[in-house]
Specification:
Elements (H helix, E strand, L loop, with lengths): L32 E5 L3 H7 L4 H22 L3 E8 L7 H24 L2 E6 L7 H13 L6 E9 L1 H14 L7 H5 L12 E4 L18 E4 L9 H12 L12
Parallel strand pairs: 1-2, 1-5, 2-4, 3-4, 5-6
The structure holds 3-methylbut-3-enyl trihydrogen diphosphate (2 copies) and magnesium ion (MG).
Length: 256
């Protein structure tokens, strides 16, 4: 793939699709579904005396380097926590920036993602989310719906509790009196997507911040110290390497 096609008007060039640094040989299993809590943009900017929004800008090439690295590693589903239901609590200016920037990135990058074989998905709540963001997400979903290299889920206006409550309300509207774990999971935003195998959070914070509460029940957790704008595929690969050495028991007993 010719990596440097000009999909964007970035000041900084994107790294090439195939990284010059060879991909590590993952000795164990590669996770099927990875969730990334992309944290630390504001601190990255503040450390440089820049407004927080510059940290969000610096995050864009990192997002696409991470997607390319996930494809190279053989990850099948990648969920990127982009804007939480709690992020509305930020200043109106930052919220406005994050909405407009998300909309523009999806618009500018859909051709590139389509070339990479990415199927774009959205997880989140409709009310309150900017209509123009929903429009770009739905357009990207439509353009890329035939792709199957990787599903990249943008979690925008996403909250784990909101998703659970939305599922409950749907069940109530259907007039059901009882649910099973399976029928409940079928009402989540993207019921076809399997549970998370691995969650990676950057910036050293050790919490889930309302990320995929149902789907994380047996996820392996990995916390990386770098701020998100300093991350990239090497950080993802480091997390996958750690994951591949973990023993997942799911409540059972090994060797039994
Ligand atoms: C993550 O970086 C991006 C979003 C939550 C949208 P932050 O903006 O949370 O950066 P910090 O945590 O304040 O450094
Ligand atoms: C989590 O980061 C949300 C996203 C990365 C989109 P936050 O920065 O919002 O989380 P808290 O407030 O530190 O828990
Ligand atoms: Mg943060």
């Amino acid at each position: 793939m010719s990596a440097q096609e000009d999909y964007t008007s970035l000041t900084r060039p994107d790294p090439p699709f195939s990284h010059p640094e060879a991909i590590p040989r993952f000795e164990g299993k590669v996770p099927r579904h990875v969730g990334v809590i992309m944290d630390g943009n504001g601190r990255w900017a503040q450390m440089r005396g820049l407004p927080r929004t510059e940290g969000h800008r610096a995050a864009e090439p990192v997002v696409f380097d991470t997607i390319a690295g996930a494809i190279e590693a053989g990850v099948r589903y990648l969920t990127l926590y982009t804007f939480s239901t709690e992020n509305w609590n930020r200043s109106p200016a930052e919220v406005r920036f994050l909405m407009g920037f998300s909309r523009d990135i999806i618009h500018r990058r859909v051709a590139q993602m389509n070339d990479w074989g990415v199927r774009v998905r959205w997880a989140g709540r409709r009310p309150r989310l900017w209509g123009s963001v929903i429009k770009e997400l739905e357009r990207a979903e439509e353009i890329t719906k035939g792709n199957s290299v990787i599903d990249v889920v943008f979690a925008i206006n996403y909250g784990g509790r909101a998703e659970i409550v939305d599922a409950v309300n749907e069940i109530l509207r259907e007039g059901k009196k009882e649910v099973s774990e399976k029928s409940f999971a079928n009402r989540l935003y993207n019921p076809d997507i399997p549970d998370l195998d691995l969650i990676v959070r950057s910036s050293g914070e050790k919490r889930l911040s309302n990320f995929m509460l149902w789907q994380s029940a047996y996820a392996e957790l990995d916390f990386e110290p770098e701020l998100w704008p300093d991350c990239g595929r090497q950080v993802l690969w480091r997390a996958i390497t750690a994951y591949s050495g973990r023993r997942r028991r799911f409540g059972g007993v090994e060797g039994a």
